[in-house]
Amino acid sequence: MAAKKRISGEERKERIVRAAENLFSKKGFKGTTTKEVAKAAGISEAVIFRYFADKSDLYAAIINRCCDDKHGNLKLEGRVKGKSGKGAFIAIADYFLELYAEDTTFARLLLFSALEKHKFSDMFIESRGVETLKLVCGLIKDGIKRSEFKRIDPELSARAFLGMVLHYCMTQEILGFKRFFSRPRKKVAEAFAGIFLNGIFKEKAR
């Protein structure tokens, strides 16, 4: 009989985070116990608190897993790095379209959290949500400085672009609208970037 492979502390921690994320997305935060998380991860309940001091630490780990790269930087930054103008906005739209198409677990978590008035969604908005808004806002500010864009409210414009993309992702992947409407991902990203930029470009920049 082959010896059972011993997993590392990091692997065990990752297993806990994935199990918690999956359960929370299906049953909500109020409907999930740490005992259920432990069972799904194949560990004892006590082990969870060996890696996470409290539930807030576990929630933060879920946010980090979804949003950050291995260096702790926002994944979206890597997709936009070196791009500007329309190329940057296409990259942002494509990032979210791909993210939702591959896995809606994290998006469902945010919905559960908001509906249950749970602090997870607040933690996300106050950290990665604000960081994402600042990233898009920075691109718009740069366009205004270069006199390519109209003098508009950068924060409000960034919210408009993200709202357009995320609403599409939500209706397609979570509400199931893709059963009735479908377009290639790249085509959707280019269309949304074009629609948005045509609204904020100066006449001469068009």
Could you describe the 3D structure shown?
The chain is mostly helical and 206 residues long. 71% of the residues lie in helices and 0% in strands. It is built from ten helices and no strands. The chain has helices at 9-27, 34-41, 45-51, 55-67, 75-80, 85-102, 105-115, 119-145, 154-174, 185-200. α2 packs across α3. It is elongated and about 65 Å long.
Output the keywords:
elongated; mainly alpha; single chain; 206 residues; 10 helices
Taken from the alpha-carbon principal axes, the silhouette is elongated
Proportion of residues in helical segments: over 70%
Would you count the extended β strands for me? 0
What structural class do you assign from the helix and strand content? Answer: mainly alpha
Question: Which consecutive residue ranges, at least 5 long each, have pLDDT under 50?
Answer: none
H/E order of the elements? HHHHHHHHHH
**If you compute it from the alpha carbons, what radius of gyration comes out, rounded to the nearest whole angstrom?**
20 Å
How does the major sheet shape up? none
Give the CA-CA distance, first to last residue. Answer: 70 Å
Helical run tally: 10
Residue-averaged pLDDT: 91
Strand fraction: under 5%
